[in-house]
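In response to reviewer comment 3 from the previous cycle, which asked for concrete evidence that the modeling workflow produces usable outputs, we include below a single protein chain processed end to end. The sequence was submitted unchanged, and the resulting structure tokens are shown without manual editing.
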Amino acid sequence: MKSRILAITAVACAALPAQQAAKQDIAPAIQGAWSLSLPNGAKRIKFIADGQWTITQADPATGAVVFHHGGTYTLDGGTYIEKVEFANSSTTGLIGKEHKFELTIEGDVIHQKGIGNPWTEDWKRINP
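The workflow returned the following structure tokens.
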């Protein structure tokens, strides 16, 4: 029985570094500029860097900013949590709110699935 417990403990301990590495790998992968194309032809641009994020959408016909907001984020494994800390007049109601997402990354695409919110989106990396 002792050997079985030791074996289970050894396997669990061996798995911890791999789990920690998987959690850490997503942080550098989400850094950068991202684009989301909408059905009406509009685009949203999102910047993620050093614990900060911003998102902007302009009217495709006029170029006027429809909304702009941002703030800080945290990562807990594949869970990405945005806290809105600033916004333009069209989205000031978001200030102080947090939004959670499950993130998965495939190549140059972040799949963002809302947790308790309706925002499930696929963001494509903007390459220079």
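The chain has one domain: 2-125. We consider this sufficient to address the reviewer's concern, and the full set will be provided in the supplementary archive.
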